[in-house]
Design a protein that fits this description.
heterodimer; A: 213 residues; mainly alpha; 77% helix; 0% strand; disordered N terminus; B: 68 residues; globular
């Protein structure tokens, strides 16, 4: 019996998937333990927002670790080598900071409220800080982007509208006709944040950025 | 759009990163053009043509024919 050798690209994909899965699992467990009531959100919208927030935060942590440790990052992130990682360092750092701050802010928002598990001031303060920080990073990054990244960014925004609009309209229609629960604010934020995530992956994938480098 | 960028780049002895640096774009942009995932802007196409000393239609192959 012969076995086909695994090429460098396939090895890298397997390593990225394994590391991503393990890192995601460990991070999710760590957050769940740090916030003991995380598994008892107040509404389905809050549960969805916690899940989306975790994805943002874990993605950001993963990229941030890759940037902080270039040797590891060159193997775990979708870059050619350390030089390629160094070229993208500023953009990746900005993305990591944005994702972590937004992810944490969304989680805290979901855990706040009249009977929430975190203080409303902390949740609102963190969210305001994350939004200001993300806006500032986006403006600074836009100046660094070349034409491909600008195109992807604009496409992602268009895809986001294309995903979020029908999702929200359908939810409203089902809610109005009694087929679904009412639209709640946290659910709405979860739909928008989730749509942005999916839209960004679609836009980047269309330009080949998700292919193994 | 189909193109000969990879062929021209390799003939000139540039890596994707080196070509990107010379053109002031990211390596991902060069990779996306070479793999037909992205059609560059007109200014970038003109810079590519100038760098390789060829005409734009020598790099990018458009199959379109005008209707009779």
């Amino acid at each position: 019996m012969s076995s086909t050798p695994i090429g460098p690209n396939k090895r890298k994909i397997v390593l990225q998937l394994a590391a991503g899965g393990l890192f995601g699992f460990v991070s999710a467990m760590a957050v769940t333990r740090a916030l003991p009531h995380l598994d008892q959100p107040t509404s389905p919208g809050a549960a969805a927002l916690i899940a989306i927030g975790l994805i943002y935060a874990i993605m950001g942590l993963f990229v941030g670790l890759g940037v902080a440790f270039p040797g590891l990052g060159a193997r775990l992130l979708n870059v050619v080598d350390r030089d390629d990682l160094a070229d993208q360092r500023a953009i990746l750092t900005g993305s990591a900071v944005s994702c972590i701050s937004l992810g944490l802010a969304l989680i805290l928002l979901a855990l706040a409220g009249p009977e929430g598990q975190v203080s409303n001031v902390l949740a609102i303060g963190t969210l305001a800080f994350a939004l200001i920080l993300t806006t500032a990073i986006t403006v600074l990054q836009w100046r660094r982007y070349d034409e491909l990244m600008r195109g992807i960014s604009l496409e992602a925004s268009a895809f986001m509208a294309g995903i979020a609009f029908p999702a929200i309209v359908l939810w409203a229609a089902f809610s109005q006709t009694g087929l679904a629960g009412p639209i709640d604010p946290l659910g709405l934020v979860a739909v928008l944040a989730g749509a942005m995530l999916v839209a960004t992956f679609i836009a980047a994938g269309r330009r080949g950025l998700l292919l193994p480098q | 759009m189909e193109n000969r960028l990879k062929e021209l780049r390799e003939a000139a002895g540039y890596s994707q990163g080196e070509l990107a640096r010379r053109l002031g774009v990211s390596r991902q942009t060069i990779n996306a053009v070479e793999t037909d995932k992205y059609d560059p802007s007109l200014p970038l196409a003109l810079r590519l043509a100038r760098l390789f000393g060829v005409a734009v239609p020598d790099i990018f192959i458009d199959q379109w024919e005008p209707e009779a």
